[in-house]
Amino acid sequence: MCTSIVYSAGDGYFGRNLDLEVSFGQEVVITPRDYAFNFRKLPTMEHHYAIIGVALVKDNYPLYFDGVNEEGVGMAGLNFDGPAHFFSVEDGKDNVSPFEFIPYVLGQCKSVEEAKQLMTNLNLVNINFSDQLKLSPLHWLIADRSGKSIVVESTVTGLHVYDNPVGVLTNNPEFPQQLTNLANYQSVSPAEPANTLTPGIALNNYSRGIGSHLLPGGMDSESRFVKETFTKMHAPAGKSERENVTNYFHTLNAVDQQKGLDEVAPNTFEYTIYSDGVNLATGTLYYTTYENNQINAVAMRNANLNSSDLVSYPMLNNQAINYQN
Ligand SMILES: C[C@H](CCC(=O)NCCS(=O)(=O)O)[C@H]1CC[C@H]2[C@@H]3[C@H](O)C[C@@H]4C[C@H](O)CC[C@]4(C)[C@H]3C[C@H](O)[C@]12C
């Protein structure tokens, strides 16, 4: 499972938890403006906005899992196994494969509105990156600095672009169903609830936090969608970058997956391999990994963005404990 959010405090932050049982060898990758993005069915994009994100680099091609461009547009691909459907190439359409979709949008859009315009003639097609790296069944969250976000889902019924009023995406079911399900939890509150259950009979509020008693806490995507929406909606805005980054990670950690809790095959467990968040104004990417809770950062603007060479940083996995004596 995965969870992606846009968090609108300070400059705004975009990122995700990547939950899986295997690691792909992903790194933090900066694609500068003059790296030539080749597309299978569209002309090469010679120049474009610079991108920072987490990707697997294969044959000098950055296969982005999530990323943010220098204009502050963020995009993440999350598993959508079952409903996801990609089509055959169609003449007259903008035929883009899922593995090309993040560069296609982040390379040329300054806002969610521009991304929406770009997608009016889009056909997400069933072309594999290679025989080893086949199509992934994904859907996507796209957000910008204003905090506005959309979800893109390609299913048997076609391409769907949904406004996302809560700025959260997890996995199945289809996005409209996830939104509808929120209605079941609308009384969940950080405050003490009013007793509408037993009018006239006082109940003993035995604990603090009783307003969130009904909040789901499972590893499943529906539970995470509700829990993350509640957590993010009530997340405080900090006064500094440090405070906002700290709040951002606490917000995502509400739905991270500890090893041992989500068995996807006998004795094989899905867990949160990494969490990342990019400042949408500065392009600095912050991340933690399962093995290393320390927040590490890579600044896009410290790289030469007028170049054609990818720049990669390994994700640091050694737990950095601050021994005080
Ligand atoms: C599996 C990842 C999504 C995490 C997620 O949603 N997990 C939930 C699993 S589940 O619902 O509980 O089954 C996705 C996100 C980005 C994907 C990768 C990116 O799309 C980049 C390439 C694309 C290639 O086509 C396949 C390999 C790949 C390297 C992808 C592998 C995998 O599908 C990734 C890593």
Automatic annotation (TrEMBL):
Reaction(s) catalysed by this chain's protein: cholate + taurine = taurocholate + H2O; taurodeoxycholate + H2O = deoxycholate + taurine
Metabolic or biological pathway, per its Swiss-Prot or TrEMBL entry: Lipid metabolism; bile acid biosynthesis
Residues of the Choloylglycine hydrolase/NAAA C-terminal domain: 2-313
Keywords: Hydrolase, Lipid metabolism
InterPro entries with a match to the protein in the record: CBAH (IPR047711), CBAH/NAAA_C (IPR029132), Ntn_hydrolases_N (IPR029055), Peptidase_C59 (IPR052193)
GO molecular function: choloylglycine hydrolase activity
EC numbers on record: 3.5.1.24
Domain of life: Bacteria
Membrane-spanning segments: none
Family: Belongs to the peptidase C59 family.
Name listed for the protein in its UniProt record: choloylglycine hydrolase
Organism expressing this protein natively: Limosilactobacillus pontis
